[in-house]
Q: What sequence folds into this?
């Protein structure tokens, strides 16, 4: 009983550390883009800012609620995010498939925010 409790506690601590790391990475992405970093912890507002940083209208947040359409729009938004930081289609694939790895690369890496390519 004690072993399973300590294992669950270790898993919880590791999970919270990963979540804190991801939040800090998104915080840095927002900061690089000239947006408030604290927005990384506000659920709908952070999606709105990601859409804006990627160069699309804020109304796209509502379109992200439409099933199946949201799958396509997420890829388009992530591609706009990659392009806004001077990255290409390969980085977009990384953002789509391994977002927990590629968002910290944007946030903590040397990538600089440039204006969105799409307006």
A:
């Amino acid at each position: 009983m004690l072993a399973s409790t300590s294992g669950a506690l270790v898993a919880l601590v590791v999970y919270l550390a990963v979540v804190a790391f991801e939040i800090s990475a998104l915080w840095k992405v927002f900061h690089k883009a000239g947006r408030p970093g604290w927005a990384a912890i506000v659920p709908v507002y952070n999606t709105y800012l990601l859409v804006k940083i990627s160069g699309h209208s804020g109304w796209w947040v509502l379109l992200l609620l439409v099933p199946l359409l949201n799958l396509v729009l997420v890829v388009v938004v992530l591609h706009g995010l990659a392009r806004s930081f001077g990255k290409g289609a390969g980085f977009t694939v990384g953002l789509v498939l391994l977002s927990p790895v590629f968002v910290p690369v944007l946030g903590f890496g040397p990538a600089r925010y440039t204006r969105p390519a799409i307006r």
Notes: The CA atoms of residues 16 and 88 lie 31 Å apart. Helices lie at 2-32, 43-53, 60-63, 69-84, 89-97, 99-108. The mean pLDDT is 92.
